[in-house]
Write a structure and sequence with these properties.
ribosomal large subunit binding; 7-stranded mixed sheet; Ubiquitin-like (UB roll); alpha/beta; 3-stranded mixed sheet; 13 strands; DNA polymerase, domain 1; 41% helix; Rossmann fold
Length: 363
């Protein structure tokens, strides 16, 4: 599951990606690895992991991770292959969610590709390119669906009518994620894998003086995002880069306090990206290792066990589950058991975010 960082050239994408790629977790320096030049695996900052480390005192701690892709800057005409258009659009297609960076700062030394700062116009430029590509995709799907309506089958007619309505919607300059669906039409839309259907998070890249209270652009972007059902993160990529230069946790804390911030903006961004991908975390906690495991929301206990090893899923017997708050309140697994607070769950159990789990299996 990957998030792609998109935006026009010179809006701060690469600075932000580099900050993410070197993000020092609040209490430790967890590793970041570059799989390809533009793909990074980033640790998800999670205070619960720090608390478990404090209580269990393990030999090592392993955080959850999320993959972030730095996608080449897009220009007008990308849908027709201009610039790195084809590569850009192919890279977005491979991502499950989008982080859209908008430039919300003035700086005469950093040229804006459009000649002036206007994040709403910039957003529209990228939207139009993605919509044009989606129109091409939907056009082909409509032509294909039209051939099947002669059958008279209800599902074939519904497919054709849904795609036709979606085509009109996109022609009106709207994004597919705003198109209303129901249980019958959603699978039809999902089948065509549209770029503007992907969940999106808007990042307002501001200057230092706007980091605490924002600037004139922020309310306008928040209003636009609310209409799309999207969220907004405000940060200053240059400040994040400065934070990354500091060696110790104490230095970073002092710097943040001077700015009136509780934590680096990239921490908030990573957590939002994780949620955007509909991911959640469960923990295993032992003296050898305290670890955060990443699963999809709604997964069952056997599916969650399979993330550790496929044998755990195949031979699943039961899961012993401790709620995070209970573990913290009682201070150890043994005391939770004594208090009768450990749950024993079967194959149907839906794992909850923050569950501490131990699997029993037999292969």
């Amino acid at each position: 599951m990957k998030c792609g960082i998109v935006g026009l050239p010179n809006v701060g994408k690469s600075t932000l990606f580099n900050c993410l790629s070197n993000a020092k977790a609040q209490s430790a320096n967890y590793p970041f690895c570059t799989i390809e030049p533009n793909l990074g695996t980033v640790s998800v900052p999670d205070p619960r992991l720090n608390k478990l480390e404090e209580l269990v005192k393990p030999e090592r701690v392993q955080p959850a991770v999320v993959e972030i892709v730095d996608i080449a800057g897009l220009v007008k005409g990308a849908s027709k292959g201009e610039g790195l258009g084809n590569q850009f659009l192919a890279n977005i297609r491979e991502c499950e969610a989008i982080i859209h960076v908008l430039r919300c700062f003035e700086n005469g030394n950093i040229v804006h590709v459009e000649g002036s700062v206007d994040p709403l116009r910039d957003k529209e430029i990228i939207d139009i390119e993605l919509q044009l590509k989606d129109l091409e995709t939907v056009g082909k799907a409509v032509d294909k669906a039209k051939k099947f309506i002669k059958s008279g089958k209800k599902e074939d007619i519904l497919t054709y009518e849904t795609l036709l309505a979606l085509q009109k919607f996109l022609e009106d300059g709207r994004n597919a994620r705003e198109f209303e669906t129901n249980d019958l039409t959603l699978p039809i839309i999902n089948e065509v894998h549209l770029l503007t259907k992907k969940p999106i998070l808007y990042v307002c890249n501001v200057d230092e003086k706007s980091i605490k209270n924002g600037n004139e652009w922020i309310p306008k972007i928040e209003e636009m995002a609310a209409k799309e059902g999207a969220e907004v993160v405000v940060l200053a990529a240059q400040i994040e880069a400065d934070i990354n230069e500091l060696e110790t946790y104490e230095e970073r804390q002092m710097f943040l306090e001077e700015l009136g911030l509780e934590e680096p903006g990239v921490n908030r961004l990573i957590r939002k990206a994780y949620a955007l991908l509909k991911l959640q975390t469960y923990f295993t906690a032992g003296v050898k290792e305290v670890r955060a495991w990443t699963i999809q929301k709604g997964w069952t206990a056997p599916q969650a066990a399979g993330v550790i090893h496929t044998d755990f899923e195949k031979g699943f017997i039961r899961a012993e589950v401790i709620k995070f708050d209970d573990f913290v309140n009682y201070g150890s697994e043994a005391k939770v058991k004594e208090a009768g607070k450990m749950g024993v769950e079967g194959k149907e159990y839906i794992v909850q975010d923050g569950d501490i789990m131990h699997f029993r299996f037999n292969v």
